[in-house]
Fold this sequence. Notes:
Elements: E1 2-5, H1 15-22, H2 28-36, E2 40-42, E3 58-61, E4 86-89, E5 93-98, H3 115-126, E6 140-141, E7 150-156, H4 159-170, E8 174-183, E9 190-200, E10 205-209, E11 217-228, E12 232-239, H5 246-253, E13 280-287, E14 303-305, H6 310-316
Parallel strand pairs: 7-13
Antiparallel strand pairs: 1-3, 2-3, 4-5, 5-7, 6-7, 8-12, 8-13, 9-10, 9-11, 11-12, 13-14
Amino acid sequence: MREFTINQNDAGQRLDKFLTKAVPLLPQSLLYKSIRTKRIKRNGKRCAISDRLQEGDVITLYLQDEFFGGDLHAPAFLSAPHALDILYEDENILLVDKRPGLVVHEDDSHQIDTLINRILHYLYEKGEYLPQEENSFTPALCNRIDRNTGGIVIAAKNAASLRVLNEKIKSRELKKTYLCIVHGRMPLKSDTLKGFLRKDAQNNQVKIFDHPIPDGRTILTRYRVLGETSRFSLLEVDLLTGRTHQIRAHLAHIGHPLLGDAKYGFQRDNRDTGYRHQALYSYQLTFCFQTDAAPLNYLNGKTFTVPSVWFQEEFLQGKFDR
């Protein structure tokens, strides 16, 4: 037998969704059967799959111990560094300045040093995340950035904040602004580019077209020129649509690939610059909620900006004039 007391981070979930996370070794078919046969109870009574859990509920599972694991090893995230560049932090969220080269989540290489593991380690040392006290919630990232792109990543410290931020990102009530350096001089000082993007999942790449295509998604990319040299332009970019690799692919499509981007540009054009990563940074974030965002309403209207982007500084200091 095992009991779970529903805490604030568990509340609001359907019973079956909670149990899938809290008891991952329990097969889905047996989970549903155990609810039907009353081997799983809520507050000592029969329950239903779709029950919404409330804080203080007690879920009792009359099941064999084998389904509850018992792994006493230290969490993997403790093997990751806990060093972070924190832009903002409160009781609900973290805004972290992710540097190029760091992956946000574990990938096929099973690398332990990821941004989320660093965040979990940091919160663990602060006493704000204790895995043994959580049934189903783990602090999580709300947005992602490619390994070789830098910029602001949002992490939610609790379930309520994670739900709200996921909704607001989906409805585009957060504005992300980027800085980048591209090859060549732009045709206009500012413009909104329109295209149609098709994803090639097999090669982890996208293709841009000037006309509608089957399986293509409309993209809108707005840019403003902040500076120019004979070979390069420094741009500020707003994503009016947020698609995979949109900035990199869209600018390359019109003949202005990002400095350092070998996937959508040409490595031969980058050799004499010393740039190993694409010069792209998600440097500014604005919360612009259009509807209620409790418990995060206090963030509405606030803008957070990375204080220093290295390639912008090098550009303004004249490195690219030579």
